[in-house]
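Morning run. Coffee first, then this:
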Amino acid sequence: MTIKKIDNQDVMRVAMRRIRMWQDKPSEPVSCPMCDAPGLKVEDRSTRPYAEWFIVECPTCGLEDTIQVPSASRSP
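And here it is:
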């Protein structure tokens, strides 16, 4: 199976919504942002307070990607 990456902003927005759903209810299944199949694997590799890093993988369509969300800079 070919490894797929998130390649446009629409899919990235869906991926971020799914990650937030996973954060709210980690025991609930989450669907893939690309193929909509249940079973998206999300791994939080964040380095807070600097950035959030998530690894997302879908066994159905082959999505394997890392999403980095920079944290807002802090005022001195």
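Residues 9-70 form one domain. Good start to the day.
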